[in-house]
Amino acid sequence: MQHLSSFVLYLTASSQVGRRAFTMSTRRTTTTRASAIKREATGMASASTNKNKGKNPKASPPVKKAKPSPKPKSQKSSSSNTETAQVPWYHVFTKGGADYNQYMREEWSFEKRGDQALFEKVCLEGSQSGLSWQTILRKREAYRKTFHNFDPHKVAKMTSDDLERILNSQGDARETVVRHRGKLEAVINNAKCLLEMQKETGDSETALDTFLWAFVDDKPILNRWGESFNPYDYGSLKQSPSQSTESQAMSKALKQKGWKFVGPTTCYALMQSSGMIIDHPVCAPEWEQARQRLLSRPGGFQERDSTK
């Protein structure tokens, strides 16, 4: 039994060994055939390549990739510079207002002569104190109507009742003056001072004219400032003076004669608006236009670097 069992085990083992050998043989055969097939395929591909070498077979042309369109150069800087060049320098405070722009083009820095015209300037510049010129410009016709077109003889005769009527007047912005008692009283007071000046000099037409223009020796001062100026930057105005030795002397002299609301800054604005001082920035075309105008002026003019 024991030997039988051993034999059975032997047969079983032999059978298993046989199967393994058969399996391994089969695998070797399969592998050999696969290798042969692979070598055959490789040889055919190589032969095909050699056969076609040197030929230029027709083929679809390669698709060209479209080049991306170049990005347009920024026009912001150029456009901004062009726009700035087309905007007048005084846009910085007129903000494009039609009335204000017209005033700057046609009145500001042009000579004003004669007592009545200059009396109006003194009164309006004094009324502007603490306000914008645009506010006064809108009301200029109302001032002319209220104060008899700035005839000093008529204004000097205005009474306290007239003053109260003005203070209590109603209407829109263009129909009423600035209802500031001190400024309104100053207009009447200054009319009386003008009449006294005319009486002292015996000149009823140009006493104030002669007095004021004497502070620039009857020769307008063309200031040089603002080699560059940005009409959108209010800070550019810091280059411009707001007073001068002449305006300080004028203020002092007027106050000594009893005039009111005639501080040095107000007097400087008066000198600018009446053409005693021309204060366009030198980079603006208005500066050269003013210079050409002054070159033909009898009596000449002065040119000054106001930045020093």
From TrEMBL:
- Keyword Metal-binding in the entry? The reply is yes
Sorted keywords for this record are:
Metal-binding, Zinc
Any Pfam family the entry gives: Adenine_glyco
Annotated region Disordered: the residues are: 22-84
Family annotation (SUPFAM superfamilies):
DNA-glycosylase (SSF48150)
Bias-annotated ranges (Low complexity): 22-35
Which residues hold Zn(2+)?
280
Q: Which GO terms describe its biological process?
A: base-excision repair
Biased composition, class Basic residues, residue ranges:
64-74
| UniProt xrefs under PANTHER family | DNA-3-METHYLADENINE GLYCOSYLASE 1, DNA-3-METHYLADENINE GLYCOSYLASE I
Q: What is this protein called?
A: DNA-3-methyladenine glycosylase I
